[in-house]
TrEMBL record:
GO biological process: carbohydrate metabolic process
Protein name: beta-fructofuranosidase
Residue ranges of every copy of the Glycosyl hydrolase family 32 N-terminal domain listed in the record: 19-225
InterPro entries the UniProt entry points to: GH32_Enzymes, Glyco_hydro_32, Glyco_hydro_32_N, Glyco_hydro_beta-prop_sf
The family this protein is said to belong to: Belongs to the glycosyl hydrolase 32 family.
Domain of life of the native organism: Bacteria
SUPFAM superfamilies named among the record's database cross-references: Arabinanase/levansucrase/invertase
Keyword field: Glycosidase, Hydrolase
EC class name: hydrolase
Taxonomic lineage from the root: Bacteria, Bacillati, Actinomycetota, Actinomycetes, Micrococcales
GO molecular function: beta-fructofuranosidase activity
This enzyme's EC code(s): 3.2.1.26
């Protein structure tokens, strides 16, 4: 669906303004040669489409700030929502380096009148802190995980919620991944709240790029985690994107009941409802090729449906993600 010949493209998210779909994506130059180096060179690109098939790249949305700043290493994954007054908000992860060379992640935002030209708000609005969230000084993980803000309006009209990739400060190291939570009345000022899930011996080291949606009347959570960052109980499944049926957009979420929606060839699954016919679609980025090396680029749309209590990729396209 979307790729760039001169750059690696990976994490991404959508916004729909009612006329065009907007695709915001992380990308970095292939001149780096090593795809693992892309993370510290990431900028947020932007493309638009009327049909989710043909995309036109336009001016980038955001780049990292000059040091010292919470986002002076890279700008990472986020989400876009529109305030009732018409202002667009782009929430994103800002990464910076600590003295020991590990990265620290915080969450900031930018605003726009048209969804295309963005102005950063300044410093971060949220960061990891105790007693609920693990910080870098624990020494248990390779970074201070506090990223991938997924923002949505409260179903009852009570402000806005943010789901966050975070870790608890207790429990098995490879099972401390939790869904962090914050709340705001206005999208500008945020209150950090306790996580919506708990660490588990059958869990994940990180629940990346969470998203919650009501698909055909049923709430579902999706997130991504590779075997190398999961507990032993999860590694054999070799899942890429995982799904969890839920009781509501705020849970409760039975993370121990999560199942793979894709294998490790596809990562960072995103759900989007097509405006023309209401069909729910899954997208992902191409993670591993046949040679086991990183590929990059975003897939075509894959229709999804419910089979019993499981959301699955529809039969006619399922073979492409096995």
């Amino acid at each position: 669906m979307f790729d760039l010949p001169g750059s690696w493209v990976w994490d991404y998210w959508f916004a729909d303004d009612g006329e065009q779909y907007h695709l915001y994506f992380l990308y970095a130059s292939r001149a780096l040669h090593d795809p693992d180096a892309r993370h510290y060179r990431a900028s947020i690109g932007h493309a638009v489409s009327s049909d989710l098939v043909e995309w036109t790249q336009i001016a980038d949305a955001l780049v990292r700030s000059d040091a010292p700043a919470f986002d002076d290493l890279a700008t990472w994954t986020g989400s876009v929502v529109r305030h009732p007054d018409g202002t667009w908000f782009l929430f994103y992860t800002g990464a910076s380096l600590a003295a020991d060379g590990k990265n620290v992640q915080r969450i900031g935002y930018a605003t726009s009148a048209d969804g295309e030209t963005w102005t950063k708000a300044g410093g971060p609005v949220l960061e990891a802190r105790g007693p609920w969230y693990e910080t870098l000084d624990s020494g248990a993980w390779h970074d201070e995980a506090f990223r991938d803000p997924w923002v949505f309006a409260d179903p009852g009209g009570n402000g806005w919620h943010m789901l966050i990739t975070a870790r608890a400060p207790h429990g098995p190291v490879e099972g401390r991944g939790v869904i962090g939570h914050a709340w705001s009345s206005d999208l500008r000022t945020w209150e950090l709240r306790e996580p919506l899930t708990a660490p588990s011996v059958d869990g994940f080291g990180q629940l990346e790029v969470t998203q919650v949606e009501v698909v055909d009347g049923r709430p579902v959570l999706i997130f991504s985690c590779l075997a190398e960052h999961a507990t032993g109980a999860r590694r054999a499944a070799a899942g890429g994107t995982w799904a969890v049926p839920a009781e509501s957009l705020l849970g409760p979420f039975d993370i121990e009941g999560a199942y793979p929606l894709t294998d490790e060839r596809l990562y960072v699954g995103r759900l989007l409802r097509r405006r023309t016919d209401g069909q729910w679609l899954l997208f992902a980025f191409r993670n591993l090729g046949a040679d086991g090396r990183f590929v990059g680029g975003i897939t075509d749309a894959m229709p999804v449906e419910w089979e019993g209590d499981r959301l699955v990729v529809r039969d006619d396209v399922r073979a492409s993600v096995r």
